[in-house]
């Protein structure tokens, strides 16, 4: 694709940073908008224009209103937001660990925040050229793939994300026909999110953020524009919803 602009949401993520690096070096990429909660991200460097956002509904709506001058010009979107653990919570190993606060935080970061972007971006992405929206999901969000159990909040919030992507794809197909959604599983990637859970992962199955970012960009260049959401992994293989 030539002469495109990119939008990276959750740009402080390790994988998001790797996507920014690749887009920066792509001569076909004319500019990148990077959105993050992080104040440190608040500087424009090279092709990248930074926007700070606290991901409240009104803030997301304001950012997207300010992007209306970009209507039809943003052709690659990456929604990288995700939360697995923080200083107050760890993924649940057993049912007794399930609690309302963790479930609410997980759904807020993993399902609600990406959905608010999909809602507010519709007018910005509605145009005549092919546009791809990659939303970072996870294989553990597949209901049919769930043989291991555990990780209740993260799993359920990624499964909810998958349903929200599917549902958005149905409506976008009527109202913004140029858009293709990808629910993307990056594989286990060496980032702060997976850091506490890497011990059991074989070295050749622990990917660098730059490898995963490159795999996603290659996928976006080759995936058919068929108005349907695809649930795909880092190896360009389909995952069953
Ligand atoms: N690493 C893996 O092995 C792996 C495996 C499967 C799926 N994934 C998914 O890949 C995506 C990128 O993850 P990563 O590994 O690069 O993780 P990371 O470096 O820890 O990045 C975390 C991302 O989530 C956002 N975030 C954190 N807390 C949030 C909150 N409370 N509300 C909204 N956004 C929040 C951050 O946005 P800001 O820039 O605004 O801070 C950042 O984009 C996530 O969706 C994750 O679930 C990762």
Describe the structure.
By secondary structure, the protein is an alpha/beta fold. The chain has a single domain (4-233), classed as Rossmann fold (3-Layer(aba) Sandwich), CATH 3.40.50.720. It has 5 helices and 7 strands. It has helices at residues 14-25, 57-66, 100-125, 152-175, 209-222; strands spanning 4-9, 29-36, 48-52, 74-79, 131-136, 179-185, 230-233. A 7-stranded parallel beta sheet has the order 3-2-1-4-5-6-7, sandwiched between helices. Helix 4 (152-175) links the parallel strand 5 and strand 6. The two termini are 29 Å apart. The protein binds NADP nicotinamide-adenine-dinucleotide phosphate. NADP nicotinamide-adenine-dinucleotide phosphate binds next to helix 1 and helix 3. It comes from Marinomonas posidonica (strain CECT 7376 / NCIMB 14433 / IVIA-Po-181). GO terms for molecular function: oxidoreductase activity, acting on the CH-OH group of donors, NAD or NADP as acceptor. Pfam families: adh_short (PF00106).
Q: How many strands, what sense, and barrel or not for the largest sheet? A: 7 strands, parallel
Please state roughly what percent of the residues sit in beta strands, choosing from under 5%, 5-15%, 15-25%, 25-35%, 35-45% or over 45%: 15-25%
CATH superfamily: NAD(P)-binding Rossmann-like Domain
Number of helices: 5
Structural class, from helix and strand content?
alpha/beta
Strand ordering within the main sheet: 3-2-1-4-5-6-7
The total number of structural domains is 1
Which architecture name does CATH use? Answer: 3-Layer(aba) Sandwich
DSSP summary, beta strand count? 7
Order of helices and strands: EHEEHEHEHEHE
- Which ligands, by name, code or SMILES, are bound? NADP nicotinamide-adenine-dinucleotide phosphate
| Spatial shape | globular
């Amino acid at each position: 694709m030539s002469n495109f602009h990119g939008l990276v949401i959750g740009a402080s993520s390790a994988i998001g940073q790797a996507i920014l690096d690749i887009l920066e070096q792509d001569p076909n990429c004319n500019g990148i908008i990077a959105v993050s909660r992080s104040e440190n991200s608040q500087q424009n460097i090279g092709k990248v224009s930074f926007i700070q956002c606290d991901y409240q509904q009104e803030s997301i709506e304001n950012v997207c209103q300010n992007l209306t001058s970009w209507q039809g010009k943003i052709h690659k979107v990456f929604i990288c937001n995700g939360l697995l653990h923080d200083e107050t919570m760890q993924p649940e190993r057993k049912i007794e660990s399930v609690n309302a606060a963790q479930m609410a935080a997980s759904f807020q970061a993993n399902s609600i925040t990406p959905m608010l972007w999909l809602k507010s971006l519709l007018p910005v992405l509605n145009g005549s050229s092919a546009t791809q929206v990659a939303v970072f999901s996870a294989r553990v969000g597949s209901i049919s793939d769930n043989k291991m159990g555990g990780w209740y909040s993260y799993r359920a919030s990624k499964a909810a994300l998958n349903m929200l992507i599917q549902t958005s794809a149905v409506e976008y197909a009527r109202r913004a026909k140029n858009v293709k959604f990808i629910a993307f599983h990056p594989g286990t990637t060496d980032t702060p999110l997976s850091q506490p859970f890497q011990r059991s992962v074989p070295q050749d199955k622990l990917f660098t953020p730059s490898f995963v970012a490159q795999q996603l960009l290659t996928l976006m260049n080759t995936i058919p524009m068929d108005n349907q959401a695809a649930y795909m992994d880092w190896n360009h293989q389909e995952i069953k919803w």
